[in-house]
Write a structure and sequence with these properties.
Elements lengths: L2 H20 L1 H8 L2 H24 L8 H19 L1 H5 L6 H12 L15 H16 L1 H7 L7 H9 L12 H26 L3 H12 L17 H14 L3 H10 L2 H5 L2 H23 L4 H16 L14 H13 L12 H19 L8 E2 L2 E2 L2 H26 L5 H12 L20 H15 L3 H4 L10
Antiparallel strand pairs: 1-2
């Protein structure tokens, strides 16, 4: 294991976090108290100090291989979550390290679960840091620092494959640095576009920035206790819906669109079509249940669409309390939690394409049950899917279910009701934020025991890094020469 190379890579990552943390200082200087300002200054200095130590212990890598890439990504995210917790502690808005770690992990993993009961009373610099951590984690801090590392060479490809969520199938440029830079430019353009539209629709510039950060990252942190519902604006809701939809799409499709300028090739993507079909179907079904409750048709469609898109893309914003929805609507939303966005998007979940492959694998097995000699392969978008890819997806699904069961049992062991335990685990593992029961869309996680918060924080990181990136570190053979 090239530990010196890993230290040097982590140093660059922590420098980027320190610089990002420093952007909160001007907000604190203008709007907040001296304690908040000093807290961010000290947090930034500590973060840059840790980066300096890692830099001194490391050296430039000649090449980086899969093992080093996996360790860098896993330790990088864990370290970022720990360093990101410093402002919450040193400004005095949180006093327990586990609470601060939970909030930081939730931010960087774009989960959006919070321990705060009143975000509107938080210092402006803290709300800036919460949503900025979303934005940085959305496309992936590691992808960002690949884009500014000119000397990694082919090793960057291993880092990129470890970080980007899901199996991206679209062709990207051979030069990974250029690819990562282009993806971040797309991300930045979409963010700025939403900022302008929300500002025009009636949000303040600060809240436009914060909510755009959280939307494009599919995070869900808001500056309002009632989330997007606090604005009671159809225009704002529809803008957020559109950008949540865009954030849930495979970003490599945007890359292909820019390079080839062919809309038809985008629409032929099978995952995109299933993604949109799921949103449309779930919206109609849930709207029908709300109409059955006596709500007006337009109100039902509006609330259903927002909640479906927010949960399906794992953003977690809210305009309504879906904990009071009929059982069918609640169960459908929980199912969407597991599915999540498209592969290569900023969304969490198991990804649409994996469920498509699982469905096709089940169909082939059923077909072989009555025609055992038939040769029938699994195809996606007209191309045959290699058996090893299908096996990997099935293994991923099994690992995801196993992690979900472990987390649910652990949370339930603290005498927390089953609905809360299961949905809190799913919401953390699949980076959604709100669940049902005591962690519903208008609730928080601050009441949970610190042991539960710690495990849920680790599940957030596990889910954000697609399970295998972290689980492989638990295998003894991984650490052998």
């Amino acid at each position: 294991m090239q530990w010196t190379a890993i230290f040097r890579l982590l140093a660059r990552l922590y420098i980027a976090v320190g610089v990002a943390m420093a952007t909160a200082i001007p907000w604190a200087w203008v709007y907040d108290s001296a304690d908040v300002r000093n807290g961010f200054i000290i947090s930034t200095l500590i973060t840059l100090g840790v980066a300096a130590l890692a830099w001194l212990r490391g050296r430039e890598p000649e090449a980086i291989y899969p093992r080093e890439a996996l360790v860098t990504v896993a330790f990088g995210w864990l370290g970022v979550a720990l360093l990101g917790a410093l402002p919450f502690l040193l400004t005095g808005v949180l006093y327990h390290p586990i609470h601060a770690f939970f909030e930081s992990a939730s931010g960087f993993t774009t989960t959006g679960a919070t321990v705060f009961t009143d975000v509107e009373s938080l210092p402006r610099a803290i709300n800036w840091w919460r949503t900025l951590s979303h934005w940085l984690g959305g496309m992936g801090i590691v992808v960002l620092f690949i884009a500014i590392l000119p000397r990694l060479g082919v090793g960057a490809r291993h880092l990129f494959r470890s970080e980007v969520p899901g199996p991206i199938t679209s062709d990207l440029r051979p030069k990974l640095k250029s690819t990562a830079s282009t993806l971040w430019k797309i991300y930045l353009i979409l963010t700025l576009s939403e900022v302008v539209l929300l500002w025009v629709a009636g949000m303040s510039p600060f809240e436009s920035l914060c909510h755009s950060f959280a939307t494009l990252a599919t995070g869900g942190f808001s500056t309002r206790n009632a989330s997007i519902g606090a604005f009671d604006s159809v225009a704002i809701e529809m803008i957020v819906v559109v950008f949540m939809l865009l954030a849930g799409v495979n970003f490599s499709l945007y890359y292909v669109l820019l390079s080839r300028r062919r809309w038809g090739s985008i629409w032929r993507d099978p995952e995109l079509r299933v993604y949109l079909w799921l949103i449309a179907s779930a919206t109609v079904i849930i709207a029908a249940t709300l109409i059955g409750m006596g709500r007006p048709i337009w109100t039902s469609l509006r609330q259903s669409l927002f909640q479906v898109v927010a949960i399906h893309t794992t953003t977690g914003f809210g305009t309504d309390n879906f904990s009071v929805y009929p059982a069918l609507a609640q169960l459908l939303l929980v199912a969407l939690m597991f599915v999540g966005g498209c592969a290569g998007s900023t969304g969490g979940g198991m990804k649409v394409i994996r469920f498509m492959l699982i469905w096709k694998a089940v169909y082939v097995e059923l077909y072989h049950s009555f025609r055992p000699r038939a040769v029938k392969s699994i195809k996606l978008g007209g191309s045959t899917v290699p058996p090893d890819v299908v096996h990997t997806v099935l293994a991923f699904f099994a690992a995801g279910i196993g992690a979900f069961l472990f987390g649910s049992l652990f949370v339930a062991s603290f005498n927390i009701d089953i609905v809360t335990a299961c949905t809190a685990t799913a919401a953390s593992l699949f980076n959604i934020g709100p669940g049902l029961g005591q962690v519903g869309s208008i609730e928080h996680y601050g009441w949970m025991p610190t042991q539960v918060q710690l495990v849920l924080s680790l599940l957030m990181i596990l889910g954000r890094l697609e399970l295998f990136t972290v689980l492989v570190l638990l295998l003894p053979p991984f650490w052998r020469r």
